[in-house]
Design brief:
- The complex is a heterodimer of chains A (296) and B (229).
- In chain A, 48% of the residues lie in helices and 21% in strands.
- Chain A is an alpha/beta fold and 296 residues long.
- Chain A has two domains: 131 residues, Periplasmic binding protein-like II (D-Maltodextrin-Binding Protein, domain 2); 112 residues, 3-Layer(aba) Sandwich (D-Maltodextrin-Binding Protein, domain 2), CATH 3.40.190.10.
- The longest helix of chain A has 39 residues.
- The radius of gyration of chain B is 21 Å and the shape is globular.
- Chain B is an all-alpha fold and 229 residues long.
- The relative contact order of chain B is 0.15.
- Chain B is 80% helix and 0% strand.
- Classes of the chains: A alpha/beta (296), B mainly alpha (229).
Chain lengths: 296, 229
């Protein structure tokens, strides 16, 4: 028994030593980074917590905007990227200060129920339908494409995760009065856009995607993505982003000041121009078109 | 009554019934195959002596700690359309998921069976030899002597199979009604902010674990009682 205790205490001691060893290099790097940021950027006066959709993160837009926001306003932007459904839910529960997502109807309902102050349109990008080159020929009419997918029972992978993209896809099926579930090869992945596109490529299936994620996956995937754009440019494929400050009357502890600063900042002409330029150098085309101040 | 109605509605609406079916089919298939492989390997490993045996045991122990997502990734790359086994079209099917599960569960059963065999088998063999048993009779006696330990190894394997999420998400793809298991459904529901149905599935998983454990225990108890007569 005594021997056992000795072994245990020895183990605990060595664990302690190991963790101590592990920590010391971290500390020095921490100091270094804080020195670096102190030399270059403004000291953050607080944190703005945002819930947003995966597309703003996956396209790298927020990584591009956050340092500029910090420099201009002094707020450090931190975000959690989830589906639009959950992004709004996080706002509803008062877990974030601001929501940036793309499902206009849900966003308006969010404001109507008093969870958000007001919805401001920020920018849009568009959706595309991608898939194998055969049997559907590329064209500009989403109705023809969806109609053919359904009537020929072609494999189609839907997000099926209640995200903004998923809602947009469902709305198009509904406007066509087609029940996609009548297609035996209509599948729901329940996963993010990137995973779903990879699955579509593997299964030679059609897929409804936002252009930003599509370009990124097509460019960056180590495995060749075997899909082409089948449909783009239809008015129904427009994807509008909106930003909403969470209502401070419901949740007094949230950082409403920073949220308002963010809205004014992102809707300003200068930042709108920055958004219009984003992605041109890397993908040869802009990923978002700014349209703050319009009625979208 | 409302709670029961609500539970029934969730069960049929959200494809939870399908998720349960997929989970059980996958777990049963992978545990059956892993059990045969694991028991055979464990017993052989104890009986045969060859150079490199210690390394083999080391490798098996290492595999016990392999993160399932890593297995998932490797199996995904294997089964990809352009991968080595792409021609079989197993990606995003239950068969593909079973393959990943076998890689995860077999080392667990192997090592459990091996360590039991290591302590009990030599005595059993010595006894069998003095009784003049043939080679096959000896083998069967060894397995019979370890049957509780083998039940336990299989139950452990089954527990791993129904609770696995990482590799199953990667290889299965979480396709509704086809490869969506209870665990991947929970993870998906959480990401959508739907907690009620996630909790329902979680409770169901716990119920399964309980039934399994209870069945194994009562089986063992009955056997013990029989032996005591």
């Amino acid at each position: 028994m005594k021997k056992f205790m000795t072994i245990i205490s020895l183990m605990l001691f060595s664990l302690l030593v190991l963790t101590a060893c592990g920590q010391s290099p971290d500390k020095t790097t921490d100091e270094k980074t804080s020195q670096n940021s102190g030399a270059g950027a403004v000291e953050a006066k607080g944190v703005l917590l945002m819930s947003t959709t995966t597309s703003t993160q996956d396209t790298g837009l927020l990584d591009y905007l956050a340092p500029i926001f910090l420099k201009d306003t002094g707020w450090k932007l931190q975000w959690t990227a989830v589906g639009t459904g959950q992004a709004l839910k996080m706002g509803q529960d008062g877990n974030v200060d601001i929501v940036l997502c793309h499902a206009k109807a849900s966003e308006e309902a969010f404001v109507e129920k008093g969870y958000g102050v007001k919805r401001y349109p920020v920018m849009f990008n568009d959706f595309v339908v991608v898939g194998p080159a055969q049997p559907i020929e590329a064209n500009k009419d989403i109705h023809t494409v969806f109609d053919q997918i359904n009537s020929q029972q072609l494999a189609f992978i839907s997000r099926g995760d209640d995200s903004g993209t998923d809602k947009a896809e469902k709305a198009i099926w509904a406007s066509l009065k087609i029940d996609p579930k009548t297609n035996e090869n209509y599948m729901k992945s329940g996963q993010g856009m990137g995973d779903t596109l990879a699955m579509a490529s593997e299964k030679k299936a059609y897929c409804f995607a936002d252009r930003g994620t599509w370009l990124k996956i097509k460019n960056d995937s180590t495995v060749k993505v075997d899909l082409n754009i089948i449909c783009e440019g239809d008015a129904l494929l427009k994807n509008q982003y909106g930003v909403i400050a969470v209502n401070p009357q419901k949740y007094p502890t949230i950082n409403n000041q920073a949220a308002n600063d963010f809205i004014n900042w992102i809707c300003s002409d200068r930042v709108q121009k920055l958004i219009a330029q984003y992605g041109i150098d890397k993908y040869g085309q802009a990923l978002f078109t700014p349209n703050a101040g319009t009625n979208s | 009554m409302d709670i029961i109605n609500e539970a029934m509605r969730i069960f049929t609406d959200a494809g939870i019934g399908d998720a349960v079916r997929v989970t059980l089919a996958m777990a049963l298939a992978s545990v059956t195959i892993s059990a045969f492989l694991g028991i055979a390997l464990g017993i052989l490993l104890e009986q045969c002596h060859f150079p490199g045996k210690r390394i083999l045991i080391r490798i098996n122990h290492t595999l016990l700690g392999i993160p399932p997502v890593v297995v998932g990734l490797l199996v995904y790359l294997l089964l990809m359309r352009n991968g080595p086994l792409g021609a079989f079209a197993l990606l995003f099917t239950i068969k593909g998921m079973v393959l990943a599960q076998i890689i995860i569960i077999t080392p667990i059963i192997t090592s459990m069976v091996y360590s039991y065999a290591f302590t009990t088998a030599p005595a059993v063999r010595a006894f069998a030899v003095t009784m003049g048993a043939s080679k096959w009779q000896t083998q069967i006696l060894t397995i019979k002597e370890m049957k509780y330990e083998i039940y336990f190894a299989i139950v452990t394997g089954f527990g791993r199979a129904i609770s696995e999420v990482g590799s199953v998400m990667l290889v299965g793809g979480n396709i509704e009604g086809r490869t969506r298991t209870m665990t991947t459904a929970i993870s998906m529901l959480k990401s959508q902010g739907i907690y009620t149905e996630g909790v329902t599935l979680g409770v169901l998983l716990l119920v399964f674990a309980f039934i399994l454990q209870w069945a194994a225990e009562s089986f063992q108890k009955r056997e013990l009682e029989n032996e005591n007569y």
